[in-house]
Amino acid sequence: MLILNAADVRRALPIDAAIDAMRRAFAALSDGRAEVPLRAHLPVPAHGGVCLVMPALVDAPPEQALAVKVGSLFEHNAQRGLARIQAAVLVVDPRTGCPAALLEGATLTAIRTGAASGAATDLLARPDSRTAAIFGAGVQARTQLEAVCTVRTIRTVWVYDPATGAARAFAEQVAGQEPIPGDVRVAASPQEAVAFADVISTATTSAVPVFDDADLKPGVHVSAIGSYQPDVQEIPPETIARALVVVDSRQAALSETGDLIQPIRQGLITPDHVHAELGELVLGRKPGRARPDQVTLFKAVGVAVQDALAASAALRRAEQLGLGQQVAW
């Protein structure tokens, strides 16, 4: 079995390759060429955590992939000097069922999540988008920004996090790191962050909306990845109600995220308000942006088909580069 640690995964899965893998992943999902059960949630209340089990099979010849991710989100990990998100991805040979590889999953998750937003931004954001805003200052925020800057020529970035020190450290760390521009600014408020933003990414743990709908400029595209529980919202319901909403998976998004569940409960929208899955746009079965002034929104809760094809892409490159460690199984 091949073992890829976090550094191996980063080398094996550059963001542009990950974006291509996500296009294929979402196309397979929307085309019925993937089996992706809803993930199992196992609460660990004594430690403020939840464990998630996410299997997926992709059967889209010539591409086949079978993988299971076990991920966890433990809110008290920071007090232990550990990252909040921990994960491992087991890749299984789809021909034999034999375990083939084990990848460090937190890094893979961050890259594939950012890449999903990159694919959505490429399909939905205005071609002339030049200013980005990022909410959050963690690992997920960095890959979101890398992906946006890969598919659009971003000149200025605004970063907002309630922890100003974290936002400042993030801005200093990423500024000028390709493909991110050197002009990365820390916003003093959510309003300042979004005032000129053409593209917004929200990658936070906030349970309430992180900006006001009235502060958005016309034609903005928003990628929202933080809310994956029914009682958690990152995006104002007013934004959801007026936006062209695209999701990673209808079934998963309508079952899991408060960004959609809460406006439905409030009677602001119905489930039919979801315009399309991202894969339907990739396949050309649904249109994307209709007007320059239209607000578009990509809501992702994360689906296992992403892990399966991201891991598959990483393993192909790892073999080319001679990465990882082989262990007897």
How would you sum up this structure, described in words?
The chain is an alpha/beta fold and 329 residues long. It has 11 helices and 16 strands. The strands form 2 sheets. Strands 1, 2, 3, 4, 5, 6, 7 and 16 form an 8-stranded mixed sheet that branches. Helix 2 packs across helix 11 (304-321). The longest helix is centred in the middle third of the chain and has 20 residues, at 105-124. The model has no long low-confidence stretch (mean pLDDT 96).
Q: Tell me the series of helices and strands, N- to C-terminal.
A: EHHEEEEEEHEHEHEHEEHEHHEHEHE
The radius of gyration over CA amounts to 19 Å
N→C terminal distance = 6 Å
Uncertain ranges: none
Rough shape?
globular
**Residue share in β-strands:** 25-35%
The structural class is alpha/beta
Total number of beta strands:
16
- Tally of individual helices: 11
Q: What's the story with the biggest beta sheet?
A: 8 strands, mixed
Chain-averaged pLDDT:
96
Helix fraction, binned, reads 25-40%
